[in-house]
Amino acid sequence: MEFKLKPIGIVHSPFKKKEDIESKKYADSRGFDSIQGELEIFKEYEDGLKDIEGFSHLIVLFTFHRSEGYRLHTKPLLEDTLRGVFSTRSPNRPNPLGMTVVNVIKRKGNILKVSGIDMIEGTPILDIKPYTSRDQKSSIKLGWLKKRMKKTQKDKS
Amino acid sequence: MEFKLKPIGIVHSPFKKKEDIESKKYADSRGFDSIQGELEIFKEYEDGLKDIEGFSHLIVLFTFHRSEGYRLHTKPLLEDTLRGVFSTRSPNRPNPLGMTVVNVIKRKGNILKVSGIDMIEGTPILDIKPYTSRDQKSSIKLGWLKKRMKKTQKDKS
User: Fold this and answer.
1) What is the DSSP string of A47-68?
2) What whole-number distance in Å separates Cα of residue A70 and Cα of residue B6?
3) If residue B143 lies in a helix (H) or strand (E), which one and from where to where?
4) What DSSP element (H or E) covers A124?
5) At the N or C end, where does chain B have fewer CB atoms within 10 A?
6) Which of the four pLDDT bands, split at 50, 70 and 90, describes residue A150?
């Protein structure tokens, strides 16, 4: 069983290549909050953006198009210990799918200006969904990431 | 440009068909919190689950395998107004991809017992990722959903 997916748009990002993102300065849990970019939705899908301005945050599903294969045990960026790939956000995974929540700044036709970009220029977008109360979880446990990510669940952004 | 994806597992759910989910009683933002089920990860990917027990919440990416085409303007479940498909969580979308955050109850080998299930029995799983501080957004705006979803960002679950 296989599924075929096709891009509905493309990410425009200040990061031109993978190495631009792989930096300690973005390792913090709010590291990408200020990074701005654009989601260009192809004209044929523009009508599907109706009503989207009402939402402050969007879930973007995309492909890690520069991913090259995967291992089930992998060293996360800036780490020395091997972890199960499903307990990491590594781009090198069985299905190279990415998920990032972005903040909508404004919409202009088929272009969404957003912040919170952690994808590279040219990343193919597969889907956009509204981020809702259901996606907000509190009292989360962060496993091996605990020592790295600041606990920010009580922050008000 | 097309992408081929293959399932890494399958959802076991108390919901046997789409109609079982399409009920007013689940419309609340916490409607599925108590629904338990299992994520069966295929044996060949089991090693990728290492370290996953440390995380309380997981992001599950899956295909809406009962989706049948889409329209760019669509009436969300229980609603009368047409909305842009990307401002809804409708299963009928250009790429029929779903995203749900589940709570991990326990792991037994390649089986993850979880709560928060809103998928139907047999749903193909494409990816599992840890839910981290980066996925927690506060002060969110809910657009047309506002009147339906309770504002729960200040809840402690």
Assistant:
1) GGGTTGGGBSEEEEEEE-TT--
2) 14
3) none
4) strand A124-130
5) N
6) low
- Identify the residue whose tokens are 């290492």: B50
CA distance B68 to chain A (A): 14
Q: pTM for this structure?
A: 0.93
Asked whether the beta carbons of residue A55 and residue B141 sit closer than 8 angstroms, the reply is yes
Q: Using one digit for the tens of pLDDT, what is the confidence trace for A70-99?
A: 999 999 888 899 999 999 999 999 999 999
Q: Show the tokens assigned to A115.
A: 């912040």
**Contact across the interface for A5 and B5, Cβ inside 8 Å:** yes
Candidates B29, B38, B73, B78; CA nearest to B58 is: B38
Here the tokens at position A135 are 């996606």
Tokens representing A145 are 């990431």
Question: Is residue B13 within 8 Å of residue B112, measured between CB atoms?
Answer: no
| ipTM value | 0.93
Consecutive 10-residue averages of pLDDT for chain B (157 residues): 90 94 82 94 98 97 94 91 96 97 97 97 98 94 82 41
For residues B57 and A140, the answer to whether their CB atoms sit within 8 Å is yes
| Contact flag A124-B155 (C-beta cutoff 8 Å) | no
Other beta carbons less than 10 A from residue A6's beta carbon: 12
Structure confidence at residue B29 (pLDDT): 79
Alpha carbon distance A149, A79 (integer Å): 13
Q: State how far residue B36 is from chain A, nearest Cα, in angstroms.
A: 16
Task: Give Cβ neighbours of residue A152 (< 8 Å, ≥ 6 apart).
Answer: A29, A30, B133, B136
Cβ pair A99:B59 closer than 8 A: yes
Q: Which residues pair with A60 in a beta bridge?
A: A100, A128
Helix (H) or strand (E) holding B101, with range, is: strand B97-108
